[in-house]
Write the structure tokens for this entry.
Amino acid sequence: MSLERAEELASQFMQEFGRPPCRFFTNWNFEQRADGLLYMTWGWDVTDATFNTGVLVLGLQKSACVWIEDGD
């Protein structure tokens, strides 16, 4: 998928599900390092793919899941 298409889909998703009081969950852990950089690690795997990540959104009226995976 092209970067432009991925950005378009992400934008559409956030327009639909990105408004409060939604709660977001992901399988990544985010930590701010002492040097100011954001450090990310996998918290858990959902698929057997080499790379998999996603976002679960829970809202009062709607909920959604976007999951992306790729392999070597």
Notes: The two ends are 16 Å apart (CA to CA). Residues 3-70 form one domain.
